[in-house]
Design goal:
single chain; 348 residues; alpha+beta; T-fold; eight-stranded antiparallel sheet; three-stranded antiparallel sheet; 15 strands; 25% strand; globular
């Protein structure tokens, strides 16, 4: 549903290093691949802790549960119409958060948009050379609507079934599950007594405590959405402590229709079924947890700018930066009032 590449990280990966604050604390790092993207984790501990197996276990749990890129995952079994597919509490947690965001954004965040994402060639079922015609979009819209799904207990503890009032729905959590994986990794670190860390999965990040190497809050940069491929320019940096941030942007993942020459972006508007560019180029959301930040970032990318302006005052639980192209052809910025307290460097 989206490609999360609008966040750059401003910390340096380094080997175990003593800190001024606590001479027994060492810097420890993990990085690798996760749910179709990459991850990096930096944390401080008073003793060496080999947490890579636990991270791998969480990644495998999410892959097998809700990755549409894993052929026999639970979510793919559900999408294939298989009966009585029991899913676990991590699936329900994502489902419940998605339902909340779906409701609060008037349907602009909708995990049932998968058939349309696939039709445009951005999904897991293979690339398509042609974009769908209007009549095909209209036909696929009957399968869109998160209200058509529900979760019910499966009769065993922490086991649930997904019930659908409409067959043929293609459910995907690609626009929110990375954030939830970040939250799960963060909880695991805290369960091991780690209080100073930064976790990133596919550009989604949560930061706790401080960066003990620098004796300051964690710094996270936000990319300029107008940069061309191969560049890495920042528009600002934010400081995070016990907060999460996620970003969404269409400037790195789009396709050009070979016949019409028109550009189509990977963020599909679930209300219209269209995947056409809008004036909104990038969104960053700061929230208490990364699941919320992730889902809302997608919603505001799909949403018209004026709709965002009307909706944001009703969402005090998040702070948002929206980057858009003005009528003068210049990059513009709008933020909620609280976003500015996190800004480390002035927006250019």
């Amino acid at each position: 549903m989206k490609y999360l590449a609008v966040i750059s990280f401003l910390f340096l990966l380094s080997s175990c290093k003593k800190t001024d604050q606590d001479l027994s604390a060492t810097t420890q790092e993990l990085y690798g691949n996760a749910i179709g993207t990459t991850y990096s984790i930096k944390y401080f501990a008073n003793e060496t802790k080999d947490l890579e197996p636990k991270v791998d276990s969480l990644i495998d749990l999410f892959n097998q549960s809700m990755s549409t890129w894993v052929p026999d995952s639970k979510i793919n079994q559900i999408n294939a119409g298989k009966d009585s597919v029991a899913v676990g509490k991590e699936f329900k947690e994502v489902f419940d958060f998605a339902q909340e965001i779906y409701r609060k954004t008037d349907g602009y965040f909708d995990p049932t948009v998968g058939n349309l994402v696939n039709a445009y060639g951005f999904g897991a079922d293979g690339k398509k050379e042609k974009v769908p015609q209007d009549y095909q979009i209209d036909s696929l819209l009957q399968y869109v609507g998160f209200y058509k799904l529900d979760m019910v207990p499966a009769g065993k503890e922490d086991q649930y079934f997904v019930e659908s009032s409409h067959s043929g729905i293609y459910l995907e959590f690609n626009a929110i599950a990375k954030g939830t994986l970040v939250d799960y990794i963060a909880r695991m670190l805290e369960n091991h007594g780690i209080t100073d860390y930064l976790v990133e999965v596919g550009g989604e990040v949560t930061a706790a405590g401080i960066n003990l190497e620098k004796q300051q809050e964690w710094s996270v940069g936000i990319d300029d959405p107008t940069q061309v491929a191969g560049q890495r320019e920042l528009v600002t940096a934010v400081k995070l402590k016990d907060k999460a941030m996620a970003g969404s942007g269409n400037y790195r993942k789009f396709k050009i229709d070979q016949e019409s020459g028109k550009e189509y972006v990977h963020t599909v508007n679930p209300l219209t079924g269209k995947a056409v560019p809008s004036e909104v180029l990038g969104v960053n959301v700061i929230a208490e947890n990364c699941t919320l930040a992730d889902g809302y970032a997608t919603a505001f990318m799909a949403m018209p700018l004026e709709k965002s302006r009307r909706l944001l005052p009703n969402l005090p639980e998040i702070e948002v930066l929206i980057m858009y192209m003005g009528t003068d052809g210049k990059l513009k910025f709008e933020t909620t009032p609280g976003f500015n307290q996190y800004v480390k460097q002035p927006i250019l």
